[in-house]
Each structure stands twice: as C-alpha cells, then as structure tokens.
Amino acid sequence: MALIVQKYGGTSVGTPERIKNVAKRVARFKAQGHDLVIVLSAMSGETNRLIALAKEMQVNPDPRELDVIISTGEQVTIGLLAMALKDAGIDARSYTGGQVKILTDSAFTKARIQSIDDENMRADLNAGRVVIVAGFQGVDAEGNITTLGRGGSDTTGVALAAALHADECQIYTDVDGVYTTDPRVVPEARKLKTITFEEMLEMASLGSKVLQIRSVEFAGKYNVKLRVLSSFQEDGEGTLITFEEDSNMEKPVVSGIAFNRDEARINVTGVPDKPGIAYQILGPVADANIDVDMIIQNVGQEGTTDFSFTVPKNDLPRTIKVLESVQDHIAARSISGDDKICKISIVGVGMRSHVGVASTMFRTLAEEGINIQMISTSEIKISVIVDEKYLELAVRVLHKAFGLDQVL
Ligand code: ADP
Ligand code: ASP
Ligand code: MG
C-alpha cells in the first residue's frame, strides 16, 4: 500500500467520458489499497477560453482579476470527478487550492507555492477518502486567489507529493512518457524509459511542455519520485525521472531535443561600445519585469557595437516601447524586433564528455541551408535561434543526426 499523487492534464479530463475514465483508474488503484490524492487540470481549451474572455473586457487583463477567472476551470473538473467517484461508490472530496490550503506569494498569474497545509488531506485519507485538489491555483496571505503559470497543475501535483511525502507522483497526460523530442513534431521520436532530473530540467526550461519547469524543480528539491504516463493506456511504465545516471546504460551523447516558439529577438544597433552599455540597455528591460533569455553583444567596430537579446513573444511590443523610451540616452542607431524566430536546443548529460557535438549540430543545420541567428551553450545543452519556418525541419534533421531515432 502506498500514498500516490496522480495528476491528470487537460486532455485527460477533456470530456465527461474521460473524467469517468479517470474515475475508473482511480477506483483500480483504490481497490489495490493505495491512498490517493488526485490533482486535476481544467478541461482542455478551457483556460485559453477564459483568457480570451478576460481580454474582451480589458486588452491587458488585471492580473488579480485574471486569476479569479482562470482558476475556475479546475474548480469544475474536481467537482465532476468527485461526483463520478461517488457514483461508483467511492468516497471522495474535492478542494480548491484555497481550501487545502496551498499558500503562494502574490505574483498573480505566476505565483510560487510557499507552503501547503496537509491537515484536511490527511484527515480525509485517514477516513479512507480519495482527495481531489484543483491544480494550477493557490491563495496568497491576504486570501487572494492566485495561479501558478501555464501548465501549473504539474507543479501542484509534485508540490502535494512533496508535502505529503508521497511514495510516487504520477503525471498522466496524452502521451505515454517523455520522448526524445515532441512526438507530435517528429513521429520517429522515441519514448525514454528514464531521463535524469538534470536533463528533464533543461528540457522543461527549454520549451518541452510535457512538464512545467517548476514541477521538475520541486521534484529535485524534495526528492519526489516522478513519473510521466498516459491516461489513455491501461498500463505502461511511462518515463521515470531519475536522480542518478544509470551506469549500466550506454548513455547517448544527446538525450533529447527541445524547442520553443515563444521567444522574440530584439536588435539594438550602433550603440557606443563602452563600459555600462549592456546595463543601460537591459536595466530598463529588467525594471519592466521582462525576462531576458539569450544575449549577444558583438565585438565593437569604430566605437559602436550591436546588441541582441530574446524576450518572451508576448513581451515584444512592451520591450520595444521600453527601449524607445531610452533610445536617445543609449544613443542607439536603431531598435527592432523579430517574433518569427524559434529556439532549438539539444540536451544531454553525455555532452559533458564529448567534443564535436556543437560542430555536428551546426553542420547539420548548414546542410539544410538553415541560418543560425544566435547560439548559447552550457555543459549539457546547446541552443540556437533560427527562423521559425525551419522549426520542424531543424528538429527532424537534428533528431536523426544525433541518432535519436535509433533504439539503443
Ligand atoms: P497536459 O494537458 O496533460 O498537461 P501538455 O499538453 O501540457 O499535457 O503536455 C503534453 C504534451 O507535451 C504532449 O502532447 C506533447 O505534444 C508535448 N511534448 C513536448 N515535448 C515532449 C517530449 N519531449 N516528450 C513528450 N511530450 C512532449
Ligand atoms: N489549466 C492550466 C493551463 O492550461 C494549468 C494546467 O493545465 O496545468 O495552463
Ligand atoms: Mg501540461
């Protein structure tokens, strides 16, 4: 008998029928004697629908009110699952984030979990009930409803597993595990039996939305046994996120490819090449709470230099405005933005001990005539920015070039 936290994503609870299927799986685990805490997302498409609705009222929705609205999707699914379970003769009780309570900071739309009160959940589990918790939401110290950022139900799941010292956290989704890359883009992608925590962290941070990055961070910090599985299969091992590299296994150099369509590139040209210029450009951007990812400053020529960086696509107009307001001060010749770009990253702990990975990547892209606009590297990843129209092609050829389509 174990304590298991199961999280079901939007597609897995997308229709009443699918919610009944979730109830069946929960019933099976319950019949095996396990204690269960279930975390649910909103029905697929619902969060997007609610955001669109909010934007009809305000072009830039007030963040506090936006959270009031977008947290409702999860409140519907948890109630429905509790009913489905009761209908099957299983005692269950649903809780919103505030009812649990999941305490967060007050950063509306991207709040961070600070603490979780496990009292209600423990009492229910002791009474033999299935506990159902709304994902993606919490409450701040003043009692305001907060949400945890897109994909945040994963984080609710892992955070509850950590707080309850659960034996395992199972993330049920619409694919049967973590693949070498998004199987919807590369049909030859292979499911991984295991992936190291470090690699999963990189994959998530570089755009693989199969797990929200904060859920992986939580799992690492609190040693949560984390597994990704399909809600559409009866059984299957899914993918286990491991803390240690399996020394018995021949590790590939590159384990996976991630991509992100969500960035835009800014170019600032002709700025004086002198100390402090990076700060003068990026300081106002940071003050406006805009996250900067990749940064390149060219070698100066004749006293001036060019500067490029990437920001989330949504923040492109705002970033341009901020820079235009300081254009005279930084003496820039021009400020421009391009949102038709994407970032493609190869990830693998095996890269540490191999040279030539970067040249293979660059050669492969060159052979397809794909121009690289920016590059950044770390010990276990290489990222490039390329024109958005090459995304699928680039991921496919890289997947092949690094042998990711070959069974080991
Ligand atoms: P959920 O609604 O269950 O949270 P998401 O849509 O957030 O599901 O995440 C699952 C999706 O992540 C898959 O349908 C797949 O398209 C995408 N994905 C991206 N990269 C990967 C990867 N490396 N392995 C598996 N799925 C991936
Ligand atoms: N419903 C939220 C979203 O669409 C949270 C989640 O699904 O994890 O982002
Ligand atoms: Mg998700």
From TrEMBL:
Keyword terms of this UniProt record: Amino-acid biosynthesis, ATP-binding, Kinase, Lysine biosynthesis, Nucleotide-binding, Transferase
Catalytic activities: L-aspartate + ATP = 4-phospho-L-aspartate + ADP
Domain ACT: 266-340, 346-408
Pathway: Amino-acid biosynthesis; L-methionine biosynthesis via de novo pathway; L-homoserine from L-aspartate: step 1/3; Amino-acid biosynthesis; L-lysine biosynthesis via DAP pathway; (S)-tetrahydrodipicolinate from L-aspartate: step 1/4; Amino-acid biosynthesis; L-threonine biosynthesis; L-threonine from L-aspartate: step 1/5
Binding positions (substrate): T47, E74
Cross-referenced InterPro entries: AceGlu_kinase-like_sf, ACT-like_dom_sf, ACT_Aspartokinase, ACT_dom, AKii-LysC-BS, Asp/Glu/Uridylate_kinase, Asp_kin_monofn, Asp_kinase
PROSITE patterns from the UniProt entry: ACT, ASPARTOKINASE
Catalytic EC class: transferase
Example of a GO MF term: aspartate kinase activity
Gene3D superfamilies, A to Z: Acetylglutamate kinase-like (3.40.1160.10), VC0802-like (3.30.2130.10)
Source species, domain of life: Bacteria
CDD domains attached to this UniProt entry: AAK_AKii-LysC-BS, ACT_AK-LysC-DapG-like_2, ACT_AKii-LysC-BS-like_1
Binding site for ATP: K7, Y8, G9, G10, T173, D174, Y179, R184, K209, V210
SUPFAM superfamilies: ACT-like (SSF55021), Carbamate kinase-like (SSF53633)
EC identifiers of the protein: 2.7.2.4
Gene Ontology terms describing biological process: homoserine biosynthetic process; lysine biosynthetic process via diaminopimelate; threonine biosynthetic process
One Pfam family per UniProt: ACT
UniProt family annotation: Belongs to the aspartokinase family.
Alphabetical list of NCBIfam families matching this protein: asp_kin_monofn, asp_kinases, PRK06635.1-2, PRK06635.1-4
Name of the protein: Aspartokinase
